[in-house]
């Protein structure tokens, strides 16, 4: 899978925007940045330092000053990267810098003005022009996705349901590295289509910007383009190369003011700082080269850029600066970041025949549809032969593939037309036949009708298949469509020349930089002194130069230390605030949440190493959900609760006195009048017979229970009730 194992460093270019009106009106201080475009150097002046303090100089792969054109940056620094992507190598361009320094301007620019179009629209032009000019044996598939990372959550900007969509998960596979699960990807066939995709995403982002304060400067936006190219190799088989391009517009790099920030805002600030400081840590760890651990997993952003920083990709970092003196500290931090990133080594390689290439699937599907269509064609041919009763004039096998496809539709149509005519004629003939019985006529007409219906269905199916086949095929872009276009030829020449010029100026700059370094080293060797006086002068000059350099380096050390202390203080402050929040939450848990509830929650917590965060297990495990849920009793269908057969009959009977209630027990008052007898004074010797003597002989008798067999029933109402009760008992017991 890998070719070209060589490693190359991240290319870092710096761009400074012009002073804006507000900054100009702020005073005569002017810019603090000077740029030597020829040498690729940025010279930074500290507005607070005395004039004697030496200025800071940084050297980069290229620098673009306030007068630079979008096109210059693209041709010189981005074009080679996009060419690599088209050849199947992963590429990343990211803009880094303080808010308002021109990250979005560099990446997107003003779309309507050809002079001000940024890296992204120029890359669209580049990709599709390259495809239209490539050889006709190449097939391309271009896909685009757009996402943003806001508050450490990955959100799909192409999801129509963006506002309510849940955050997406990051996954890792050995084939394609870190990727976003379930991310929408749109197949694009032209510049217009990919621009529409971009606009759709930008609108989703814009909605967020109005909903949330300063959203755009707080979220990172990633536009991803995958270019798959299939080309026959020397072995005669088609090989697929896949290049992924990440176009990244980061959130502003300035530190969020932390004083007085609490709750959600604190979390937001901490998270934005987190991903940017994680990016800084990753860059430092990679640039250092000694640390074995690179903290990619510390944030979503660094995980997504894992391949772009120290992995399988070519990377260009555009650091953007503002020239205003009030932003000196931020500008210096950006330059330091950029300077560090220069040392990162990547190992880009050509991604050949990866398993997850979508182009391969598309090619298979197209082949399958074509086979189906050919089969239909063959069938219609057979039928036509049967109808005509003669042979096909031309043998289909001799046709070329292109002719075959075109012919398919025509032949099917022709066959259907002929068949329709034939059926209509036959129907007419049947209608006109006066000797046929009406019944038979009807039967034959019905049959013809059915045949006609079948024919139409078949035609519809073929049309659908053809449409599907064409839609599928149109998704693939074939090279060589514009190759004969004369104006294109000229444009191509112009672009080549531009490319050459860009290459030349780049190599010139490299040579200049090398010469500068060598000059200093060899100065000593070349110098010969004619007199002692001359030697003293020369050496004094050199001493001064070296002393200045020493001072520079000392100042640099001090600066780095100061910055280190500052960022440490900031981190400590964030840590303190977070600890306070944590303590507060613990306090709530301990005082207001019962321990058993807390334990229940704790038991449900599991750590997801993929997502790098704690998650809740569902209360009922997913697989046993159906088995654990009790089924609703069937008797209850249509009723509020299970009811007996008796009750159902009772409902059906309405207000029938026999079914007045479904209760088994009879709870009506017993209206039987009690039997009374005058109390005779019992004789003492008769007291033993209290139990066995009949009660009617003595005083008040106990009232009769409903379940006792009535001995003498006088009331007619009790008679009815008891009868009902007797019937109810066996029924209800069912
Ligand atoms: P960021 O995305 O870094 O926050 P923007 O790209 O939105 O900053 O730029 C802020 C403003 O500066 C915009 O109005 C933009 O037009 C202007 N600007 C930035 N860079 C340049 C440049 N190189 N030339 C002219 N105008 C620029
Ligand atoms: Mg921006």
Automatic annotation (TrEMBL):
One Gene Ontology CC term in the entry: microtubule
GO molecular function: ATP binding; microtubule binding; microtubule motor activity
KW Isomerase (keyword) present: no
Region ranges (Disordered): 375-412, 682-721
Location within or outside the cell: Cytoplasm, Cytoskeleton
Residues annotated to bind ATP: 97-104
Regions annotated as coiled coil: 529-581
Biased composition (Acidic residues): 388-408
Keywords for the protein's UniProt record, in alphabetical order: ATP-binding, Coiled coil, Cytoplasm, Cytoskeleton, Microtubule, Motor protein, Nucleotide-binding
Record-linked SMART domains: KISc
Family affiliation: Belongs to the TRAFAC class myosin-kinesin ATPase superfamily. Kinesin family.
Protein name as catalogued: Kinesin-like protein
Protein encoded by which gene: LOC127368836
